[in-house]
Sequence to fold (156 residues):
Amino acid sequence: MKTVILLLISAVISYLIGSLNSSIIMSKVLKKDDIRNSGSGNAGATNMVRTYGRVYGVAAFILDFLKVIAAYFIVMAIFSRVDGAVFEKYEYFFKVITGFFCFIGHIYPCFFGFKGGKGVTVCAAMICLLDWRMFVIGLVLFFAIVFITRYISLSK
Fold:
């Protein structure tokens, strides 16, 4: 029962962190606009590149990627102290829960009217968190498709 409660609390923490959409925050703070009102209407890195330029797009990508890693380290810091044995035994499940609920938070952010991004970057970060080798394979495939087609949306 204790493990289930820890996993549920991890889900809530991760969802709230995932709801911090960097594209929306950056567009509102730096540009006094909402990225969802521009370009494709999506709150993600690709639309940031198209609307505000590469620097903003790369920053959005990095911040959205890091929020999954940060959520996991926050969950790990809290729950490894609460019950280190449970956390160690179920570490993979904590990673899955953290990544998945960051993903849901990014797509349906409670702070921004439940309208967020597609979650491609967050999903990539979750894959990296679970198995860095699969992330590298996915990254190579992504860049190969972009290089061949010159079309970013196809490689997602």
Residues 112 and 141 are 32 Å apart (CA to CA). The chain has nine helices and no strands.
